[in-house]
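Need a sequence for this fold. Nothing fancy.
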């Protein structure tokens, strides 16, 4: 297939190079002339956006950066501008074309922001073009190798035809592949990154406590990686809507927080964990009270 890769940064380069290795015809597209020149020097077909005006292709993958603004909000202007320009390109296409969003965007963005832009091409989604959201799970230091050997591929599809085409593109990759709706794929990418962030912050909080107690935090967490079910059982704690209970977790979370406070050691993450759990307990008790059978 002929694939356009819009945005040739870390994700775009890994994506395009990976598909080129599988025998697909890849055209990298970027507004940065230095990026284009670098890829051309490496032997790839790379162009500025104006260089694809007369080009035909089967699939376009958007790998445009979506950084944070100063207020923390996601910056969508770059990918929105790229999508607007591509709608003009899409208007000139006579064959069915698949649009794939790989950029990280909040749930609802692909359907509610990008799709209306693409519709300005006067093409009909589901008939003239397809739409998928396919998040990337690439590490910056090993993005190309991660693309070659993915641990999971997730396809968020507008319709079955879109998903079928994109799944076919990954038939030569040995990995687990899941197909969901577009919004679930968008949300999963954020949940993926948030989980990693929370885990690092948890480790840092334990590290700080250990440091103040004269213990080796790295050694403690290395042992936890072998002992805690949340580490070695991938299904543990993945069903939501229920507070943790039992003989250990409630008493040990509150008990250790009290111990840390007695030593003057702040544990804001643990405090937040306990607060969230108590709120779930209250909600669960309200449901039980509502559903309690009447005694006559």
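Here you go.
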């Amino acid at each position: 297939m002929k694939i356009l890769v819009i945005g040739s940064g870390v994700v775009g380069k890994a994506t395009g190079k990976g598909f080129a290795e599988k025998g697909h015809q890849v055209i990298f597209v970027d507004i940065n002339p230095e990026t284009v020149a670098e890829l051309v020097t490496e032997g790839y077909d790379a162009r500025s956006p104006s260089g694809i005006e007369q080009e035909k292709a089967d699939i376009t993958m958007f790998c445009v950066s979506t950084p944070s603004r100063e207020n923390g909000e996601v910056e969508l202007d770059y990918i929105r501008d790229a999508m607007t320009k591509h709608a003009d390109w899409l208007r000139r296409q006579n064959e069915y074309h698949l649009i794939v969003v790989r950029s990280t965007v909040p749930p609802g963005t692909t359907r509610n922001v990008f799709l209306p832009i693409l519709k300005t091409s006067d093409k009909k989604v589901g008939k003239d073009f397809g739409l998928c959201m396919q998040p990337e799970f690439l590490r910056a230091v090993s993005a190309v190798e991660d693309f070659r050997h993915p641990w999971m591929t997730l396809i968020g599809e507008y319709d079955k035809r879109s998903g079928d085409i994109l799944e076919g593109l990954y038939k030569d990759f040995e990995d687990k592949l899941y197909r969901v709706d577009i919004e679930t794929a968008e949300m999963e990418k954020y949940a993926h990154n948030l989980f990693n962030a929370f885990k690092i912050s948890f480790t840092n909080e334990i590290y700080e406590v250990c440091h103040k107690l004269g213990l080796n935090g790295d050694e403690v967490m290395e042992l936890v990686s072998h002992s805690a079910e949340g580490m070695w059982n991938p299904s543990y704690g993945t069903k939501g809507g229920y507070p943790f209970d039992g003989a250990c977790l409630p008493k040990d979370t509150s008990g250790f927080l009290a111990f840390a406070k007695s030593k003057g050691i702040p544990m804001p993450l643990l405090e937040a964990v306990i607060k969230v759990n108590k709120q779930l307990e209250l909600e669960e008790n309200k449901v039980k009270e509502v559903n309690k059978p009447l005694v006559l």
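For context: The radius of gyration is 24 Å.
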